[in-house]
Prior knowledge:
flat; 5 helices; 2 domains; single chain; mainly alpha
Amino acid sequence: MFARYVKAAAAKSWAFVRNNVRKGVKSAKNNPRTATACAIVLVAAAIPAILAGIGFTSSGIAAGSVAAGIQAGIGNVAAHSGFATFTSAMMGGYGVAAVGSFVLAVGATVYAFVYSYT
């Protein structure tokens, strides 16, 4: 009996998600500039989660992570290299401004490209 309710709720939830994704895609096609701006904001907001998932943490490189493997392959990490900048960004150092500026510059470039062709 309970399984039937769960199955019905799952079907209803899936229909809700499917319909809203369709609406979102239609809206993005009709408003490419707004969709691009939203995508840029989402990517910028996801950068810390992506770096954390790779293994860059607020206390350094997580043991056994992808970042630890990269660091092992690099050996001594050069100051201000990309790896050092990502580490600094997650630890709240100079990398925060560097990574943030890079993401915003790429985002502005993409937005300008979309804006000029729509």
